[in-house]
Amino acid sequence: QVQLVESGGGLVQAGGSLRLSCASSRSIFTINGMGWYRQAPGKQRELVAAITRGGNIIYADSVKGRFTISRDNTKNTVYLQMNSLKPEDTGVYYCNTWSSSTPPYDHWGQGTQVTVSS
Hints:
The protein is an all-beta fold. The protein has strands at residues 4-7, 10-13, 18-24, 33-39, 46-52, 57-59, 67-72, 77-82, 91-97, 112-117.
C-alpha cells in the first residue's frame, strides 16, 4: 500500500513557475512508472507527465517544452518543474503510478492545487 503526498502547488501569474513534489512511502525504484496527473474544474483527469524507473519520460502535448518531470530515488520523490505556466494549467495535480498498459492505482490522494492567473 503505497502512500503518495503531493506538495508545492500555489498561486502564480501566467509565465511563472512552480515545482511540485510527490513523496512516496515506497521506494520509487520498485515502481515501474510514476506520473503526474491533473484535473481542471469540470474536466477529466489527465496525464501530464510520466517517468519510468528506466528513465523513459513522456509528456502531454500541452505541456511539452514547458514542464520537466524528474525523480530522486534517495528521497523517494518525484518532481514536476513547471515553467511558463498558463491559465489553462490550473487544476489539482496528483501523482500516482503510471504504466502504458495498466491503469494507475485506484486510490488518489488530496493532490495539490495549482492556480495560474492571467
